[in-house]
Specification:
Blueprint lengths: L3 E6 L4 E7 L1 E6 L2 E5 L6 E5 L2 E6 L6 E6 L2 E6 L2 E6 L2 E3 L5 H17 L3 H28 L1
Parallel strand pairs: 1-9
Antiparallel strand pairs: 1-2, 3-4, 3-6, 5-8, 6-7, 7-10, 8-9
Helix pairs in contact: 1-2
Length: about 140
Amino acid sequence: MSVMHVEVVSGEENIYSGEASFVVVPTVAGELGIFPRHEPIMSLVRPGALRLTVPNSQEEVLVAVSGGVLEVQPDKITVLADVAIRSAEMDAARAEEAKRAAENNLSQAKDGEVKAKAQAALAAAIAELKTLGYLRNRKK
């Protein structure tokens, strides 16, 4: 089985470092499926579920990403995420509350810095909710 090395890094920590045989990344142009030996590309990442198929594992590794940058090389994928949350750390109620708070802060923002922080928080909450939705649909 052909594999590639994958690094998913947020501004706070290294979220995933290991092998994968297939990766799906939510990009601004749509979901991008990547197999080993893919042509080199760079893309912006949009909020959503990053899915990794790990060799010799029955489960997909899921990471909610709020945005960032994707770099693909034939034997390595790097995702530099603004915010990334492992599926085991996700909580729907907390994400819904964070989304409501971010939307409220965004509607009341009077300066650029406050608005940017609210937009980042909203993107993180949306990414988490999209990933949880993917998990729910997959279990059906």
